[in-house]
């Protein structure tokens, strides 16, 4: 198989497109000739990115500001997508929290759930009927290698990502033979190639440099996997290690070890 063909009337929709994996994938898709709809909260930044993509790659790049954690904002986006010819959907937006679940800010936790899980669920449902009718489309949902394991001190995040992982892989099998593909991106640590020391987060400082993968390499590997209709892509050395270990290590051993590590991130 291959990715859906570029078409003047069709769009690739990318959430979380103002930074990170989402921005890298939007850039690569525009470079490949796809029109793109960029979804994120920051309208001014999103329009700057869209303008750059229009200028550099000659595609139709549309900034679509939306708070995906807000039910009303999300409903408006869903209505737009249902009226748009979407041939690629990248659900990349997401956030995380660290520390004991009982100590977390409840508003942040519910926002995390809406963004990481509900938005993926609703946006996938919005574009799938049109893709199936046209017998062409590609969906990529960004889950996580962390979604393979119950990790103490990361409970809400693994709750959402475990759901995204299983949901996406279930759809992968459901959609076989329809012309529509569904691929799970399950990364571990991903970041810019270089981060000034003053801007490094605690995660940047705790995880050694050689274990990280960049947003750009993550995007390339993911698009290649989507074109081959792979069920799951796991980019980068630490992601691959986490994926392999989680498949064989007993939860009773693995969860406390990872929970201890994650407690240092709060």
Automatic annotation (TrEMBL):
Family annotation (SMART domains): PKS_KR (SM00822)
Entry keyword set: Oxidoreductase
Matches recorded under NCBIfam families: mycolate_SDR
Organism: Corynebacterium gerontici
An annotated Gene Ontology molecular function: 3-oxoacyl-[acyl-carrier-protein] reductase (NADPH) activity
Enzyme class: oxidoreductase
Membrane-spanning ranges: none
Tagged with keyword Repeat: no
Entry keyword annotation includes tRNA-binding: no
GO CC terms, sorted: membrane
Family per record: Belongs to the short-chain dehydrogenases/reductases (SDR) family.
Name of protein: 3-oxoacyl-[acyl-carrier-protein] reductase FabG
EC number, UniProt record: 1.1.1.100
All residue ranges annotated as the Ketoreductase domain in the record: 10-193
A family per Pfam: adh_short
InterPro entries per the UniProt record, alphabetical: KR_dom, NAD(P)-bd_dom_sf, SDR_fam
């Amino acid at each position: 198989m291959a990715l859906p063909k570029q078409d003047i009337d069709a769009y690739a929709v990318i959430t979380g497109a103002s930074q990170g994996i989402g921005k890298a994938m939007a850039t690569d898709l525009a470079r490949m000739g796809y029109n793109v709809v960029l979804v994120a909260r920051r309208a001014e930044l999103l329009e700057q990115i869209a303008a750059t993509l229009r200028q550099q790659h000659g595609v139709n790049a549309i900034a679509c500001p939306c708070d995906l954690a807000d039910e009303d904002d999300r409903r408006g986006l869903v209505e737009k997508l249902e009226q748009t010819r979407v041939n690629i959907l990248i659900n990349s937006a997401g956030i995380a929290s660290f520390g004991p679940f009982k100590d977390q800010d409840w508003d942040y936790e519910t926002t995390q759930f809406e963004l990481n899980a509900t938005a993926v669920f609703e946006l996938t449902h919005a574009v799938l009927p049109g893709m199936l009718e046209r017998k062409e489309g590609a969906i990529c949902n960004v889950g996580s290698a962390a979604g393979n394991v119950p990790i103490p001190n990361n409970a809400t995040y693994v709750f959402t990502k475990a759901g995204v992982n299983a949901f996406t892989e279930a759809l992968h099998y459901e959609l076989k033979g329809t012309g529509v593909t569904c691929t799970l991106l399950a990364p571990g640590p991903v970041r810019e190639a270089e981060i000034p020391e003053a801007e490094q987060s605690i995660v940047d400082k705790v995880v050694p440099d050689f274990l990280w993968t960049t947003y750009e390499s993550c995007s390339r590997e993911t698009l290649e996997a989507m074109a081959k209709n792979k069920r799951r892509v796991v980019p980068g050395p630490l992601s691959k290690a986490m994926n392999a270990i989680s498949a064989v290590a007993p939860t009773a051993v693995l969860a406390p070890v990872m929970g201890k590590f994650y407690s240092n991130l709060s």
